[in-house]
Amino acid sequence: MLHGRTALVTGAAKGIGLAIATAFRTHGARVVIADIDGPAAEASARALDATGTQVAAVTCDVTDADAVRAAVRECVDRFGSLDVMVNNAGITRDATLRKMSEDDFDAVVDVHLKGAWLGTRAAAEVMREQGSGSIVNISSISGKVGMIGQTNYSAAKAGLVGLTKAAAKELAHRGVRVNAVQPGLIRTEMTESLREDIWNAKLAEVPMRRAGEPEEVAGTVLFLASDLSSYTTGCVLEVAGGRFI
C-alpha cells in the first residue's frame, strides 16, 4: 500500500507511534522514526530494519521548529521524498482545573497542538512542491467529548481537529491531503498504568466491550496514508470501539 514512499512518524519510539511505523514498513514504506528519546528511537528503528537502509531514527522535540524542520530534511535527504507525515507525539499532565499548573497546561498544548502545527507546516513545504502527500494528525476521543482532569489534553486534541480541517482546505489544491484520527481507549503503556477501577469504568463505556490495540489505530492511519483514501481530506476518523457515538 505504501511501496516506494517515505513516511515520518513523530513520537514513534513506542506505543501507537511505533505501531504506525511498523504498519507502514510492513506495507513497503521507508520510515523515519522521530522521538524526543533518541536512543529509544534508534532501538526501535533497528528492530524494524537491522540493515538501516529502510528505517532511520532522528531525535526530535516537536515543540522546536528547527528540530522539526531538521527531521523533515533528514527524511528527504536520506530517502528522497516525504510522502506521509504522522503527527503523533504527545504527553499527558493530568489534573483538575483547580490543581493543574499553568506550566502543565502549556506543556501539553505545546506538544500536541503546536507540535502538530509545526509538523504540518514543515511537511507541507515539501509536499506542495511534490504535488502530493498525506498528513495524518493523531487527535483523541478526549478532543470530542472532553475528559475530567484533562482540560489541557482535551483542548489540545480538539484543536487538532480545527488544525486538520483548516490545513486540508489550504493544501487540497496542491494535491496534499490532511486528516485526523481520534483513538479511544487503546491498550498502551500509558493506559495500562491506570487504576483498575478507572480502567473498568472507561471500558464499560465501549460498546465493543474491549480496549483497542495500537495496531488497530495504525490500520486506520495506514488507510489515510494510502491511495485507498485518495478522495478523503479534512476527515476525522474515530477508532474507539463505538465509545461516545
TrEMBL record:
Q: Does the keyword Nucleotide-binding apply?
A: no
Q: Where is the Ketoreductase domain?
A: 5-189
InterPro entries linked: KR_dom, NAD(P)-bd_dom_sf, Sc_DH/Rdtase_CS, SDR, SDR_fam
**Matching SUPFAM superfamilies, A to Z?**
NAD(P)-binding Rossmann-fold domains
Q: EC number(s) in its UniProt entry?
A: 1.1.1.100
Give the UniProt record's GO annotations in the biological process aspect: monocarboxylic acid metabolic process
Show the GO MF annotations: 3-oxoacyl-[acyl-carrier-protein] reductase (NADPH) activity
Keyword Oxidoreductase among record annotations: yes
**What keywords are assigned to this protein?**
Oxidoreductase
The record's listing under Pfam families reads: adh_short_C2 (PF13561)
PANTHER family in the record: 3-OXOACYL-(ACYL-CARRIER-PROTEIN) REDUCTASE, 3-OXOACYL-[ACYL-CARRIER-PROTEIN] REDUCTASE FABG
The family classification in the record reads: Belongs to the short-chain dehydrogenases/reductases (SDR) family.
How is this protein named in the record? 3-oxoacyl-ACP reductase FabG
Q: Which organism is this entry from? A: Streptomyces antnestii
List the gene name. fabG
